[in-house]
Amino acid sequence: MLKNITLNVNGDNHTLAVRPNETLQDLLRTGLGLTGTKKGCESGVCGACTVLIDGEPRNSCIVLAVSVDGKKITTIEGLAKDGNLHPLQASFIHNGAVQCGYCTPGMLMSAKALIDKNPNPSEEEIKRAFGGNLCRCTGYVKIIEAIKGWKDFSGDKQNVIPGDATGSVGRSLHRKDAPDKVTGRARYTGDMNLPGMLHGKILTSPMAHAKIKSIDTSAAEKLPGVKAVITWKDVSETLYGVSPARYDEHVLAKDRVRYVGDEIAAVAAVDEATAAEALDLIKVEFEALPEVFTIEDAMKEGAPVLHEKYPSNVNVDVNYTFGDMEKGFAEADLVLEQRYQGNRTYQSPMEPHATLARWETGGRLTLWTSTQVPHYVQHMLARVLEIPMGRIRVIRPAVGGGFGVKAETTPLDFCSAYLAKKTGRPVMMKYDRKEMLRHGRGRHMQYIDLKIGVKKDGAITAVDMTAYLDGGAYTSFGIVATYYSGAMVPTLYKLPNYKFKGHRVYTNLPACGAFRGHGCPHPRFAFESMLSVIAEKLGLDEIEVRLKNAMTPNTLTANELEVISCEFKATLEQARDASGWREKKGKLPRGKGIGVGCGGFVSGAGYPIYRSDFPHSNAMIRVLEDGTASTLFIAASDIGQGSDTVLCQVAAEELGVPYDSILMSDCDSDIAPLDLGSYSSRVTLMAGNAVKMAAANVKSKLFVFAGRKLGVSPDELEAKAGRIYAKSDTAIGLPWDEAARLAFSQGGPLVGTGCYQPPKKLGGKHKGAAVGTSPAYSFGTTVVEVEVDLETGKTKVTNCTDFHDSGKVLNPSAAHGQVHGAVVMSIGETLTENVQFTGSGDVANPTLNDYLIPTSMETPRIHSGFVESHEPRGPFGAKEIGEGAALPVIGALANAIYDATGVRITELPITPEKILNGLKALKDGSRP
Amino acid sequence: MHIKELDYLSPATLAEACGLLHSGGPGAKVFAGGTDILPDLKRGRVNAASLISLAGLDGLKKIEKRNSTQPHPSTLYPLPSTLFLGPLVTPDALDRSALVREIFPGLSEAAASMAANQVRGLATLGGNLCSAVPSADLPPSLLTAEAELVLTARDGERRLALKDFFLGPRKTALRLEEILTGILIPELPRGTGTAYDKFQARDASALAIVGAAARLTVKDNKIVKALVAIGACAPTPLLIAAAGEFLAGKEPSGQNFARAGELAAQAIKPISDLRGSAQYRREICRVLTIRVLKRAFERA
């Protein structure tokens, strides 16, 4: 039943025969190969697929191709004309409005439609025009700026993109990947299409807890178009997971499922529709087992057991004490105790997970995967498939955001590899939004029982904290999350006596994993809330109490973590002054409030996830033979945060060449050396150090040849701005590229390598001492202002002032972009985000319509500033920013809401309903 | 996600569309903007053998003022003066229409509050009514407008008051072979103001937790007529008769609006769901009712 239509797409006329059930999105992506139109939600919510139909912005995922017969379609690929970027595209690049890039094409198309009608839109008009273009990285701030300033890039100015020869570090240089991302050229895994490619889908359990009695795949196998069906019989029974001490996941379930979403079988077929149809034909006979969905129920005597190895359902148990708790609390003038409750939140990157697997002739596997951790994927596939790593090639194309949810090997990685092997054809597998939520790996919901003792002057004498984490059905990152929950508390404030107990509990829900700030946001929410209560009770200023206890440089924390650089106090002071804290605190009218919160994070974990002595980050730089460019080979995974750009800046600075002459290689395990990936905020510091070493290595080789030519000892040479010269007399020198040509002519390929290993023996001797160790720690303070509608309880965040100590800031635009994104994401986590479940354990809000991440309308004014410390262990003094920036926000918001309303909410998310109930309780005279 | 195989038919006339709907049987679905049915088809919540697109029927895209001398393409309207809204009018068009803004600003507000820019240009008024999602934004305002619907089938057409149209969540009085072909808004007396307000968890791309519409006609500082309708608080959008009856003949005072708010909160039948508890919805319904009454009064 094909229908003929004619379309004009980006100026070209097409006559096409389309299926009536085909969306415009699929026609553009698959039929015309225009993959710049992205697939984010497939239900008209995220806006990543926005195209212009006769000039009007529309979601191509909810438009049938057949319905646009005769229309004029403009996609992102049609925005640049005659090789010149559209001013909007140039403005996006220049303003740092691009991070992961997955929302960018849709944003640009909406922007184009807006400025065509209204060339001078106000901020309010821009925000409103983008309510249907969701972004998870940028917090919308720089996107709004880019649209406001688009005219600056019209006419001749449009392609002025600086990249001169002066120093690279510390400058807001344009992202390396931005041109590809604003033009739709950037390729994400799901955009790929190989000859003969099949499409795979996974059958997951509809039961939260059940025995599998039988699996019958015969009907599915007979369906025309189905090429392979696999079950546990076809795959390794080796258990996998994240931490070697708790591998507890099966590739495909053999006899038991533990949550709605547990993987049972997988199908490869000629297209996605056939694969989905085949899943419906697989008959699985279950025998229901008792289910348990809450921490409380799972910890009860006689509760259903998920894993026999852990009969109490507690699969991680932490207990440590530093100092003398009895003495500490005895010294206190005030002791407060309170239970706080977090929420189960989901990363919701705009790009859903995708993997493409192909077996090469000769038995090597190539896997393209949307991952933060190509190395761990390679390692885990080697373990499970029982083949050496040398027979697995992992390539990471552009990644559309991760925030932790892409930090582990996924069922798509395993199943695509098995299906590709069985069929001998490439197999593409993707999650849709519901599958993502069902697979889970979001933030652990934690109960935090917190007890703090303080002197009258606000000095903390003791802290006793117990965390209960809802782990879901498997361990995933659970060990680390549990340890982090406790380990990071003493890094921010000096705690003379500290006790932590952590219990992670199995429940029949999707497993929880690592999410920005890993394990720390809920304890931070609890701690920052309680500190403000303490200040009020003691009649002290909230910021003064924090200053009183704030961490200082060169300190060993209560739990034996080494803090070297630390400008925490300065962040408190600057956030206080820039926000007008003194003028506002306690002086705002009812309904308006101001609050403060603090946080910080590791700059990379001190130890790898599985034991090895491998350096954590490794880099190679190869200088092009004529010396006009150098390629950086590194597998550190830029998932949108901009680390590739920062690493190129580090290389340029150390080599002494212009930033534009540094090229980034593909992230491909066959090409670039091992790097542990993008997690624990590690890339800038660790990969940055490796790159700096590789560049220094190149330079030292180069100086031998240059020195010989100049008659100067290599030790006496310096390289800067594309020139090599004598330190003593800058007139004695030669151009950098000339030196490189000399080096190649006389010595062959000019290559440098670098490897970074964190300092040995970080951390104490107690059990779990490895978690929380890091070469360096970030610190930050956020002050937020809110307006609460006292009749409905709805909170609007109006202002946010954030100051961070991230060490030396290598790229200010990128660093501010991380802060903006973290602030807005945390606003969502505080106010609206919560994964909820039906009575039978299925996700109740699996779409972007129900799981509410912030839109452009939720973006407050954000003032982001840095207090630069110099971290001796960081490249050029740099530390992390990506995760630390998220940590102060939740507590700050809770405190601001209290200031506005008098209602102290201790359970996340802080919904309007909770605030209204609190207001009512205040009115009735009972404490909320 | 994908849509199962189906046929897509593009009739050129209303009669042809009615004929196709008749011959297509239960598997044939009327297709307008597609913003509801396409995600539903992808999720398997709806099945369709064929979609009958109304896109070719330009008469259904109009917004215009009519009187009895200007007949609808297929019928005569005895209403003295009417605002005719075609079912294919998009929320975007409603929002931008100067005529609608002048006559019925509450409806413009409701249209502007929907979903997001891209969707507002695709979705249709007819779809918003026929999908009969309890939280839909346009029905409350149209209920206060005392709108009537023209429902057309192969063998004729009928008129139905909007208040009798909604039967339950995703259930309407639309018969299997009928197409909604017009929405008629009777002329509003002088001194009438309208308003819509929506409570949502985020300020774009979100469903209403409560939607409230009000219409007030005021003369000599007395309320001549009042209508209040609430969305998302019952299986169907509800016209709150008690509020209207209470306000009629009274002064447009804050106190009276407050009482009307209480009456609205009592009249609804909310459920507790992901977006809020029943009790909370009642409270928001009360607050929003007062707010829209005040705003409608300011516009009266």
Question: Explain this structure to me?
Answer:
The complex is a heterodimer of chains A (928) and B (300). By secondary structure, chain A is α+β, with helices and mostly antiparallel strands. Chain A folds into four domains: 1-185, DNA polymerase, domain 1 (Orthogonal Bundle), CATH 1.10.150; 198-289 and 350-401 and 406-439, Aldehyde Oxidoreductase, domain 3; 524-605 and 769-924, 2-Layer Sandwich (Aldehyde Oxidoreductase, domain 4), CATH 3.30.365.10; 617-756, Aldehyde oxidase/xanthine dehydrogenase, molybdopterin binding domain (Aldehyde Oxidoreductase, domain 4, 2-Layer Sandwich). In chain A, the strands form eight sheets. An eight-stranded mixed β-sheet of chain A has the order 8-10-6-17-14-15-16-27, with helices on both faces. Chain A is globular, with a radius of gyration of 28 Å. Chain A starts with a strand and ends with a helix. Chain B has three domains: 7-53, Uridine Diphospho-n-acetylenolpyruvylglucosamine Reductase, domain 2; 58-186, Uridine Diphospho-n-acetylenolpyruvylglucosamine Reductase, domain 3, CATH 3.30.465; 192-299, CO dehydrogenase flavoprotein, C-terminal domain (Enolase-like, domain 1). Chain B has helices at residues 14-24, 37-43, 91-96, 98-103, 105-112, 117-120, 125-130, 138-144, 241-247, 254-267, 278-299, and strands at residues 7-9, 28-31, 50-53, 63-67, 81-85, 148-153, 156-161, 166-168, 171-172, 179-186, 192-199, 210-219, 222-231, 238-239. In chain B, helix 9 packs antiparallel against helix 10 and helix 10 (254-267) packs antiparallel against helix 11 (278-299). Chain B has 300 residues and is α+β, with helices and mostly antiparallel strands. Chain B has eleven helices and 14 strands.
